Structure formats: structure tokens, C-alpha cells
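Morning run. Coffee first, then this:
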Amino acid sequence: YCFIRLCLEKILLPCVLQARALSGADAINALRPFYFAVHPDFFGQHPKEREVNENSLKRLNGYLENLQKPGFRSFKPTRLTFYVREREQHSSNVQEPFSASGFRAVSFTLQTRDLLSTVLDILNSCSLSTEHIQSLNVNPEPHKEARSTVNRPIKWDKTYYAFTGFKDPEEELEQAQRVDTTLISWLDDNEASAGKKLKKSLPLRKELERLKFELSHQLQLSDIRWQRSWGIAHRCSQLHSLGRLVQQRPEALKNVKGRTVIFTDRSGMSAAGHIMLGTMDVHHHWNKIFERLPNYYKLEKRLLLLEDRISQLLGGIQVIYVEELQPLLTLEEYYETLDSFYNRLRDSRLPFHPRSLRGLQMILESDRYTPSLHEFGHFTIPTVCDPATLQWFIFAKAQEARENLRRKEEMMMTEKELIETSTEKLSLDRLYKEPSVSSAQMIDCCRRLLEESLPYLQGMHLCISHFYSVLQDGDLCIPWNWK
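And here it is:
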């Protein structure tokens, strides 16, 4: 009796599953509407949403790759969050909250063992149509049964698992859902693989530091940075490309002294005055950017003058640009934003007393409609804000803004001290955070890390994020609110 069931388990069951399975290519085609709705490239003006989607896509791709591995059996339920682009906010009956930018936040847990069920889970969770799956020669109807039986058409009696020693997949799934991932358990499972990846990446890391130092010294740059978390090998190749351009056209780079170079999605000069080199652009395009630097510097002077004029009209409040909190704008885009706001402000003639708001700060954003006060003390002002509303809001929040600015300085010092103390106590090689993690969250995370004994972390690179992950170069990512 058990032998017959064993044959069914090993022969017939895989055939049943294969008959309605998706190939990797079919899965990608089926998920095209989903990728279009969440792809980070469509979130250029919304850095927080773009970063969340970028990180979630990495984890989703890893999950899909594991499902396609031969003999893959064990898995862990994976919780993902995406911001979904929609033409109309009320086009869906799903009651997920909308972000400040108007995108719907969707969270779901992947816990299926085949590509078809996983694809259907994702599309249904995001309220996307599944009709196009019919053209892929698969039948989506078994999906409902698959969710409840873990993709097993035969429900074995518990005595079968007790006799054969096989693990009951339903029991494993229930146990995984009951037990939340803890920091200790996750490190137990992932520290070894992270260590291997880190060890493998060490020669490339040294090469990256060497290239960065040599180019910075040769061009007298202030810094070299990357907008996104590309791998070490990718960064090295970008620096090699810049090095070749320096050798071929040294005269074109004579105007970069004291500047910061950022490798990003497009070329130009950023609103913060940094030289942007698009990673998809060829050397000829980079060369044109360097040749146009004198014109960029002239526009930068005009931009600073425009900021001063706005400041004078608003009682001395300082107009700033915060890279971590604002979209990566070009110098031209930011100048147009300032110019539009200045013209509205000049025509309204608001009665601000000169220097009455000196010491306060504000940033301009084109995708907001109401002013707000950030926890760090600066005002976030929409470019289309009604002047009367702007005046009332700044007067009402001025004192609170000054208090927030004072707290910001204290918080930044506390954060820096805790990072240094945590790095030393845990014997980390590096401790850092993603831009989407606030200082308050980082402080809370570090204080709790200092209370733990974590020998696993010795010599590791630890990134404080919103999820658990091992990056391709061995960096460990843990959520700031780990358990």
C-alpha cells in the first residue's frame, strides 16, 4: 500500500504538475502587465516608491529563479510590497492605502511551489487581469485548489508521512506562517552563504577602492558615487570606462576639479551641482557632458541667484535641495521649478518681514499640492501652492520647524555615534543604511543590536533596510525593526 503511494508521489504527481506548469519564459510574458505597473524606471520622480519596488523586484526574481531549479523542494514564504501605477486611483476595489504620490501600496506573500500559481497570485494581488494567461496554453483554474493543497492533487493521510519519513508540505507551510522570521534564525540560515559571497567579492572591492582613489586624485574630484546599489563588478566596469575616457580625452575633463561624479540613469548636471554620467550612455555622450560643463556652471550661478531672490521674498528662509528626499533632477529641471515658483511668489507680494524667517529651510516639490513640515525641520512646499496658504502655514509652523531643526542636529550626532559603536562591538567591516531608512529608525535598530550577542556578524557588511536579503556581493540586509 505504501509502495503504491510512493510510486504516485515520485512518478504521477510530478507529471500532473508538469502538465499545467509554466516555463520561465512564459512566466515572464504572463507578468508583463505587472512589471509595467511596478517597474522602477517609471518612478523617476518618486525615489521612495522606486527604491521599494527595486528591492522587491530583486527578491521576486530570486523566488522565481528558485522555483525553476531542478529538485527544488524547500522554500520560505516571502512577503513583498510594491507601489503600483494606476491611471485612476479608484479603478480597483482593493482597499490598499495610497502613498502621498498617488500610488497604491500592495503587499502579498509568495508561498506557492510552481510558476503558474505564483504568477496568478501576483496578478490577482495587484488586481491585474489574468485573461492573457489563456494564450499560454495553461489552465488557471487549478489555482484555487493549489493554494489550499500546496499544489498537491492528492491529499495524503498523516500516517503516510509518519511511515515514509517524508515531510508534510501543508504542515511545513502552517509552521512557517506561524513563526515569524527572527534575526538569529535568519542569520543561522544565511550567514554561511553571505560569507562565501563576501570572500569572493573582496578582490573586486579592493580593485574598486583603487580605481576610485586613482580617478579622484587624478581628476581632483570631491567624490565618486552611485545612485543605485549596483554590484561591485558593475561599479568597477563603470570606473574603467571613465578611466579610458580620461586617457583618450584628458582635455575634456579639465573642468571637473572639486566636483562629485555620480553614475546614474542619465547624463548631465544634477540640481545639487554633481556631474551625472548615464550608465547606458557611450563615451561620446559623456565627452559632450564634460565639454558643456562651463555652460552648466553659468546656469548654476543663475540658479543660486534665483534661490536668493526667493529667500528675500520669504523673510530669509533658505531654499535647499535634499538629494535623499527629492527626485534626482537635472540642473535645467530644477531651474525651471525655481523660476516658476519665483514668478508666482513675486506677483503675490506676500508681507514677510525681512529676515524674520532666517535660519529656516524649505524644499520645493512639483508633485505635491499641500505644504508640510518634515521631521528634520524643513518645509516641503509645492510649486503650485497658493501664496496665502503658504504664508499662513509658514507662520503657524515656524516655531515647530526651529525645534525640529535642533532635534535633527542631535539625532544626526546620535546616529553617527551609534553606528561607530555598533560597528566596533559587533566587529563589522561596515555598517550602513538605505536612504529610505530614517535616522530615528536607524537609531532604534542600532540600540537593539548593541543589546545582542551576534558573533555571526564578525567581518561582515551589514545594511539596515526594510527586508531580509543577501546581496550578490555578500552584504547582509536586515529590516530596521527586526525581531
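The CA atoms of residues 317 and 360 lie 5 Å apart. Good start to the day.
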